[in-house]
Amino acid sequence: MRPTDRTLETLAVAAGEEPFRTGSEAGDVTSPLHLSSTFALPGLDSEMSLDDVDPDAGEFVYSRLSNPTRHALEKRLAALEGGEHAMAFSSGTAAIFTTALAVVEPGDHLVAFDDLYAGTRRLLEEVFATRLDVDVSFVDATETENVAAAITDETAFVWMETPTNPGIELCDIAAIAEIADGADATFGVDNTFASSYFQRPLELGADVVAHSTTKYLNGHSDSVGGAVVTDDDALAERLEFLQQVGVGDALSPFDSYLVLRGLKTLHLRMRQHERNAMAIAEFLDDHDRVSAVHYPGLESHPQHDLACEQMDGFGGILSFELEGDIDDAAAFLESLEVFTLAVSVGGVESLIELPAGMTHEPLSEEEREELGITETLIRVSVGVEGTKDLIADLDRGFDAVRRRSAVADGD
Ligand SMILES: *Cc1c(COP(=O)(O)O)cnc(C)c1O
């Protein structure tokens, strides 16, 4: 549990680093990067057995098992999510894979949001359903009763994501926690899009939370990693076994160092991401070439009230529907100078992409249609640059679309 006398801002700056300040010879103010793959042991007949070394007491054996830099990061991730145990993984995908593997067995049933990160959806379909004989149901979880209706006697795991990508849809974490609890199923939430700063699912009743630290937690688009946080001791033990021994997919020391460094400004970045995203959402909402804007901060978002209830802010990711065809969308995207055409989200720089042709291209046409992913749906990860420059850049995009229609009309 997060110590009640410390705010999230203070934890973001320093949680997990105290041992280096007070315990190291040099008194480092920031975590050193421990690259060593193995650590000198005190002696052969020491009390220390491989199974119960205590990293909190400065005991380390081998870096796959635990490493001082990764351990500092794991302490901070736990503090920020308000959980007991955190584990850092080599990617968000590894974090989600390992969590699912720690929960389900062949023959179990799993209920997931249909609007999941495309990679997670493929992981559940192509690994868990196809290879591991897990029965997977995808449901529209914006309506809580669809989750309740999908639960069976075999349901062991409920996996949600909120807000989702690229539909920016929400599900009600507290209500789904109650349903999962009633069914004795483990309830996990991918909290990547909101970040620990704007949403803490454990406080709302989730059993386990995952992140792609690649996105907001690291925040600088220079590291791929993942995290899992839970209060459940038994689940944490299974997860640690898989992370350290069963799968061996822990985060590297260097990436741990980068995420620790990125986290120090999580609160500052998130506030600016949100300020810019709100301004852009309002600008797009008023634009005559835009037929829809999906951003939970807009009162017109169908789940704006739920966002106000379960989130502390609306985040920095939005999507919008450009009026026109795929060539208009291409003209728009290719004319931008401040936004970079790239997949991924959550970095300080603004990124923009076309889900139908990029992130969600691997889905079938029917799946895309079901999720409302049209050929002109554009996703924006709003960075922390100057608001004025970002809006001027989008204006440049709309000018390119106008010029294109003028040429097409022959005038
Ligand atoms: C990026 C992302 C993932 C996958 O994380 P990687 O670090 O790319 O493996 C999972 N969930 C969400 C919501 C994401 O945005």
From TrEMBL:
Keywords from the named record: Lyase, Pyridoxal phosphate
UniProt cross-references to Pfam families, sorted A to Z: Cys_Met_Meta_PP
UniProt KW Lyase keyword: yes
GO biological process, one term: cysteine biosynthetic process via cystathionine
GO molecular function: cystathionine gamma-lyase activity; pyridoxal phosphate binding
Cofactor: pyridoxal 5'-phosphate
A GO term from the CC aspect: cytoplasm
Family: Belongs to the trans-sulfuration enzymes family.
Entry protein name: Cystathionine gamma-synthase
Originating species: Natronobacterium gregoryi (strain ATCC 43098 / DSM 3393 / CCM 3738 / CIP 104747 / IAM 13177 / JCM 8860 / NBRC 102187 / NCIMB 2189 / SP2)
